[in-house]
Amino acid sequence: MSVKLKVPDLHLEGLQLVRVTLTPGMGPKEYDGQWVMFCSPLGSPGALVVSADFHEVSEGVLLGGTAHAIVRSNDATTASQAGADEAAEVLGPWLSEVLWDFLAGYLLPLAATSWGNFTLPQKAPTPTIRHLAELGGSDKE
Fold first, then answer.
1. How far apart are CA 41 and CA 49, in angstroms?
2. Contact (Cβ atoms closer than 8 angstroms) between residue 113 and residue 61
3. How many Å from the N-terminal Cα to the C-terminal Cα in the chain?
4. Measured between alpha carbons, how far is 62 from 35 in angstroms, rounded to an integer?
5. What does the pLDDT look like over 10-44, one tens digit per residue?
6. Rounded distance, CA 9 to CA 75, Å?
7. How far is CA 65 from CA 7, 90, 137, 138, in A?
8. Alpha-carbon distance 104 to 78, whole Å?
9. Which pTM does this prediction carry?
10. What tens digit of pLDDT does each residue of 63-114 get?
11. What is the Cα–Cα distance from 133 to 25, expressed in whole angstroms?
12. Is 88 left (phi over 0), alpha (psi -120 to 50) or beta?
């Protein structure tokens, strides 16, 4: 199966803040500064959720957040997780700036009031595109 999504064929239907967190007592920085994105089907043909997650650790404090973009396409092949995983390769880079700007609006004030020394990027970091199965989610269609 091949998804032939093109950005002009897509409609951004909304943005949703899932979480922001400022948590003390975090250990190693193995996930520091990660901007990870993945897609999953929303339930109706052509509807997808594009999830973006960012986290940074500074001075033992974790600053993180997750946001979703709801996207609709006329391509019904995105209704399966395999189709959504393929769509992530197109949608991740396209929505990275939009989701970063949205999420950064919540992260920046939180970082400014923290005792950590956070260096949040002004522009969206290059996203790491993941498939749901890689993240421990279901890959069943």
1. 6
2. no
3. 13
4. 14
5. 788 999 999 999 988 776 665 556 899 988 888 77
6. 9
7. 25, 22, 19, 22
8. 28
9. 0.81
10. 999 999 998 877 665 556 677 778 788 888 889 999 999 999 999 999 998 8
11. 29
12. alpha
**What sign for the dihedral angle of Cα 54, 58, 62, 63?**
negative
Q: What is the 3-state secondary structure (H, E, C) of the chain?
A: CCCCCCHHHEEEEEEEEEEEEEEECCCCCCCCCEEEEEEEECCCCCEEEEEEEEEEEECCEEEEEEEEEEEEECCHHHHCHHHHHHHHHHHHHHHHHHHHHHHHHHHHHHHHCCCCCCCCCCCCCCCEECCHHHHCCCCCC
